[in-house]
Amino acid sequence: MNIKKFLLLFCVSAVVVACGGNKKATSSTRKKESVSSRKRIHREETKITVKEPNPLANVSYKQKIQNYIYEYAEIAKSEMATYGIPASITLAQGILESGAGYGKLTSKAKNHFGIKCHDWTGEKVYHDDDRSQECFRKYDKASESFRDHSLFLKNRKRYAKLFTYKPNDYKSWARGLRAAGYATDRKYPDKLISIIERYQLYMFDAEVLGGGQVAEQTPKTPAKTDDQYVVKKGDTLYSISKRYNMKVDDLKAYNDLKNNAIAIGQILRVKPN
């Protein structure tokens, strides 16, 4: 082999080796870029699928009940005015039966009182209760559930005795509901009474009946300021607190009240000193 042929063969070999090295380097680079790209896409997908925290998860049961009362008290009072069922009883049953509006049955059927199908011809849902997958009534809105609850009690003979009790006698109503078969839980009356008294639901009965806890005698009325309110006939602490968008407990604290008794003409502070 002469020198020219040897040099030519050497050059060809060098080019082949160099190309092979470049291919390996390119392949390695592409693999690294591919892995990096997959990691980046995975991180982006992970960010997309992360669930936001549920703001209701930290709401206490007490706060849920207070929210329920605020939302449905007017409906319960309206039903009392029409059918004579104490608003306190309606609200307490709604709170207990619906889990303060957060129960599964209420969420999917707006059924606040656990009323089963019976002779119902409307929409239905099936839900585990005393037995698996029992039939319950379904409503389009909460007010329909409250109205059906009133009709359910008013139109059935077994609940007739309830309407012989005074509309502000929530204890007799609570015991009578269980005696008539509304619930099998022996502690059902005690649970209703406890809710009514703890959250002063009897005040709504007083509002509907018109007497409230307002004294009949009218004291001499002194001059008032913008931070004060003069009690009128039919007023209750609840109605006044609602007028000024405040809590009953705050209203009592501003006026050093030990109970819910107020008198016509009495001046109450509606703002802190």
Report the portion of residues in β strands: 5-15%
Class based on secondary structure composition and strand pairing: mainly alpha
Strand order of the largest sheet: 1-2
Low-confidence stretches: 45-56, 211-223
Q: Whole-Å distance between the termini?
A: 115 Å
SSE succession: HHHHEEHHHHEEHHEE
Main beta sheet: strand number and arrangement? 2 strands, antiparallel
Helicity range: 40-55%
Specify the number of helices: 10
Radius of gyration: 36 Å
How many E-type strands? 6
- General shape: flat
Let me know the average pLDDT.
80
Structural features:
two-stranded antiparallel sheet; 10 helices; 53% helix; 273 residues
List the helices and strands and how they pair.
Elements: H1 3-49, H2 61-83, H3 87-98, H4 104-109, E1 124-127, E2 134-137, H5 142-154, H6 170-179, H7 188-198, H8 202-209, E3 214-215, E4 228-230, H9 237-243, H10 248-254, E5 262-263, E6 267-269
Helix pairs in contact: 2-3, 2-5, 2-8, 3-7, 6-7
Summarize the model shown.
With about 270 residues, the chain is mainly alpha-helical.
